[in-house]
Amino acid sequence: MFNPACPSTVSPFRIADKWGGLVVLCLEDGPRRFSELRVPLRRVAPKVLTETLRALERDGFVTRTDYGENPPRVEYELTELGRTLLPAIAACREWGAENFDALLAARDRYEAGRYEAGRYDSDAYLPTGTG
Amino acid sequence: MFNPACPSTVSPFRIADKWGGLVVLCLEDGPRRFSELRVPLRRVAPKVLTETLRALERDGFVTRTDYGENPPRVEYELTELGRTLLPAIAACREWGAENFDALLAARDRYEAGRYEAGRYDSDAYLPTGTG
DNA sequence: GGCCCCGCTTACTTCAACGTAACTATGCTC
DNA sequence: GAGCATAGTTACGTTGAAGTAAGCGGGGCC
Fold first, then answer.
1. Any idea of the CA torsion for B6, A23, A52, A43, to the nearest 10 degrees?
2. List of B residues 49-108 with CB within 7 A of strand C
């Protein structure tokens, strides 16, 4: 169970990286250009988007089509394999839509518990970034 | 879309951290002790397991019960909220079971393409660890 | 008194992800 | 020839997750 080659280590639990799943979502409705992806992704740094797209390409989730024009035009599109990710991603999104508030409430309770216990620490009220 | 408070940033895309999803799976069939979790999780460092469990506790996914005995006995158990993760995790696992081979094949093709292109680099044949 | 058990904690190191800022290449238009 | 547009690349630094190694606490047992 859970050896390094286990599918769970490459499953959509962590699609490529922080942005992988979001990029796949952005491509759900059809091909998109590099600059078109940057807008919904909160202007993610081009370096990071390039890395993400290369990883998705490597894993066979997207194809990259360079039309050799000028100014450059490159389109990214989901492959069939990439489309197989969509149900799992949908399940994750559905979970988020239904339970996000409960999660935040749990965090509030947790922080409140730390406060009541007298272990007050101003930093403790900040998200830890592990989410 | 995709602002910092967006549910997607706390969704099971990345449950707490690398181990969060696996811990939840280990707890699917009932409460487990700290040392019982370490076995299936490939003897993950106690530090890391503690951090993971604290994060899951913070988010309301697991409860921690200290029986105050000696030697210590502590049990971790999924909450109702924690159980809501299971369908999404199942979807991810199902994806892995069905498509893991296709993903590895895609990676092989990708590496082979790099080789054919003459950009041979021995390191390029190693997984990059982003999976 | 010394060792075991279990569930941690602490100190330190490593490494990949992420981000910022600036720069590049190419052809087109003004 | 200056500037614009697109799709990047390069250099650099920060952050945080993960791992290593060792120690702690306190009752039970010999």
1. -60
2. 50, 53, 64, 66, 70-74
Q: In Å, how far is A52's CA from the nearest CA of chain B?
A: 10
Is the pLDDT at A76 greater than 80, yes or no?
yes
Contact (CB, 8 A) for B70 and A32: no
Query: What is the rounded CA–CA span in Å between residue A24 and residue A29?
Result: 10
Give the CB-side neighbour count of residue B40, counting CA atoms within 13 A: 15
Residues of A in contact with B63 (CB under 8 A): none
Closest by CA to B89, choosing from B4, B31, B28, B12, is B12
* Closest C-alpha among A98, A59, A23 to residue B7: A98
pLDDT at B15 over 80: no
How confident is the prediction for chain A on average, in pLDDT?
77
- Is B108:B63 a contact under the CB 8 Å cutoff? no
Distances (CA, A) of A27 to A82, A103, B115: 9, 28, 29
Q: Exposed, middle or buried: residue B79 (CB in 10 Å: 0-12, 13-18, 19+)? A: middle
Please name the residue ranges forming H helices in B1-84.
20-26, 34-38, 46-58, 80-83
pLDDT digits (tens, 9 = 90+) for A8-56: 444 444 565 778 888 998 999 999 999 999 988 877 899 999 999 999 9
Whole-angstrom Cα distance, residue B69 to residue B87?
Answer: 35
pLDDT at B116: 60
Contact check, Cβ <8 Å, B85/A100: no
A22-45 as b/e, with b when 16 or more CB fall inside 10 Å? bbbbbbeeeebebeebbeebeebe
